[in-house]
Amino acid sequence: MKNKKSVFFIVFILIIAFAASTVLGVRNQYGDLTTVYIKGLKDIRLGIDIQGGVDVTFGPADGIDANKQQLEAVEEVMKARLITLGINDYEVYMDESNDKVIVRFPWQTGETDFNPEAAVKELGETAKLQFRKGFNYNTSVDDDGNTTIAPMGDVVLEGTDVEEAYVTLERDSSGNPTGKYAVALNLKESGTKAFADATSAAVNGDAEYLDFTSSSSERYVISIWMDTNCISYPTVNDVISSGSASITGNFDYEGAKALADKINGGALPFNLKTETFKTISPSMGSGALQIMMLSGIIALILIMIYMIVLYRVPGFVAAVALLGQVAGTLAVISGWFGFEDSNTLTIPGIAGIILAIGMGVDCNIITGERIKEELNTGKSLESALKAAYKRSFTAILDGNMTIIIVAVILMGAFGVSSSFFAKLLSFLFRWFGISTEGTIFSFGFTLLTGVIFNFIMGVLASRLMLTSLSKFKCFQNRKLYGGAEK
């Protein structure tokens, strides 16, 4: 009995702690360095309609006359890079007649002094990845004193040979973490064979793999270059035929993540230069977000009070569950869980959160009314609660499943995400000739997330809390649950 009574306090504390960490996040400030352990609301990237953004026009550098296929390739790479940055509120289109690609995307969250040049740099970098035999390069200095580095050695692998790149922990020869980060690579079939041949040649002492900068002539390496910067030149000790490799280079997490994003984003067919850029003012006007947040908080509090007044103890439990549902939705958007980066929150996305809250209220009203009905038939409190949750579940499931179907269709038809499921939906809709872009993705994403957390909080967590509370003698009065005194 004591164990069942403690369930309420465990679930209640977990929901409150979860909500607090979702809002505030967990971070450590040491001087100018901020380490983020758990992302909070500050890490949500707001859409152009809420925060504003940048409009940039890219054109080919070096006087290249780009054709339609090349411009389309740039367009796709831009979209892929925006997705890896967690931005789904964007516009990318090409101007074929003028050899231009125009991109619009929101400001980075928290930037008060926005620098468009810095913003477009992360998007327009060529980021050409190459693995080369040995570590050798030439340097030249022009009349202005600028040094140019030209890597030597034949190319073993290129970025196009990489299937996937992701951040991992760097480990020493004994397999123990070093406290630094590395970029792990899964190679395509062609890259697997080429890398196995290269590492085999290096192990066998092929002179092309010598590190000419080392004092030891017995160091055989494969150097890794990002454009003209050598980011790592690891020694090859064994033949690697598994199709996996890693890039080490004294990375912190952010540096490793940025490199992995560039590799996953793909290589541009030619160098780009920024033709024009300008800032975009938010369509809602400055200060609108604060007004929306305040209105949302007031509305949520009023809903909670209404539920408590109308349903008493079940209403209180419903209020806690609603708080958990909202926190869960915001946690997924902010990247709280860690398995996915933060997503862009737009006005349609906020509408999705509001609609999901409405579904959560509806779920709790159905359960509260069912509890009243079961109690008024003369059943005991325990039996009434069990029957109410069992019989209300079907109606809740039917209502929420229809919303889930709509949300999935919206995400597949109007949005792009880095997740496998969303990519699959995007492929299917494109196959049928349906567009896969637009801010409606944000609406579908927040709506789907909110409904899922409605099941977790409004059904599972609320049942655990209410059943636990009913074990306390002070909460066994049937009037507290809307029933008549027995």
3D architecture notes:
The protein is of the alpha+beta class. The protein is built from 12 helices and 17 strands. It has helices at 2-24, 48-51, 68-84, 116-124, 189-203, 253-265, 288-311, 313-334, 347-376, 381-414, 420-431, 440-469; strands spanning 26-30, 33-38, 45-46, 53-60, 91-95, 100-106, 129-133, 137-141, 147-151, 155-158, 162-171, 177-187, 222-226, 229-232, 244-251, 272-280, 344-345. The strands form 6 sheets. A 4-stranded antiparallel sheet has the order 5-6-4-16. Strands 10-7-13-14 form a 4-stranded antiparallel sheet, covered by helices on one side. The longest helix is centred in the C-terminal third of the chain and has 34 residues, at 381-414. The radius of gyration is 28 Å and the shape is elongated. Residues 413-423 and 425-437 have low confidence and may be disordered.
